[in-house]
């Protein structure tokens, strides 16, 4: 269908038209398309900003974790030199009769990965969460 014949010639309608034409056509799927897990992890990482400080003999990672207890945060080393900070922020239980007018605080999984140097002493890594700020040294 040509939208121009109907007097509708906007980029939005061209995009919708293209999506309708390609919906259900899996032959165009790229083998390089990101997996759902990759997209989920990328979103979790993007939503977890961190400051990284370099000292002569160490690094310090500072991540805001408002409203989380230290038991809700996982800090571990994987693959011998990748520092992984992860966890999940859950929504509070709703009280009877209350309804949200606005919901702006992020809930869900969060994660950050940092590649450490080859000679990093991973046994000496420590983490402290105080006043909603996680500090990993």
TrEMBL record:
Q: Per the UniProt entry, what is one GO biological process?
A: response to hydrogen peroxide
Single GO MF annotation: unfolded protein binding
| Broad class of where this protein is predominantly found | cytoplasm
UniProt keyword Calcium present: no
Q: Which domain of life is it from?
A: Eukaryota
SUPFAM superfamilies of this UniProt entry?
A: HSP20-like chaperones
The record ties this protein, via InterPro entries, to:
A-crystallin/Hsp20_dom, HSP20-like_chaperone, Small_HSP
* Residues covered by the SHSP domain: 41-137
> Which keywords fit this entry according to its UniProt record?
Cytoplasm, Stress response
Task: Write out the GO cellular component annotations.
Answer: cytoplasm
Give the UniProt subcellular location, in the record's own words: Cytoplasm
Please give the family membership noted in the entry. Belongs to the small heat shock protein (HSP20) family.
* Protein name according to UniProt: 17.3 kDa class II heat shock protein-like
């Amino acid at each position: 269908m040509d939208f121009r014949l109907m007097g509708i010639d906007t980029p939005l309608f061209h995009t919708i038209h293209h999506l309708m034409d390609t919906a259900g056509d899996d032959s165009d799927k790229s083998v390089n398309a990101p997996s759902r897990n990759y997209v989920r992890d990328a979103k979790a990482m993007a939503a977890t900003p961190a400051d990284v400080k370099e000292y002569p003999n160490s690094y310090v990672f500072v991540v805001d974790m408002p409203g989380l207890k230290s038991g809700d945060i996982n800090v571990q080393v994987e693959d011998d030199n990748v520092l992984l900070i992860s966890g999940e922020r859950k929504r509070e239980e709703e009280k009877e009769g209350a309804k949200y007018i606005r919901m702006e605080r992020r809930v869900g999984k969060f994660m950050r990965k940092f590649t450490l140097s080859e000679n990093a002493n991973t046994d000496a890594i420590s983490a402290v969460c105080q006043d909603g700020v996680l500090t990993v040294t």
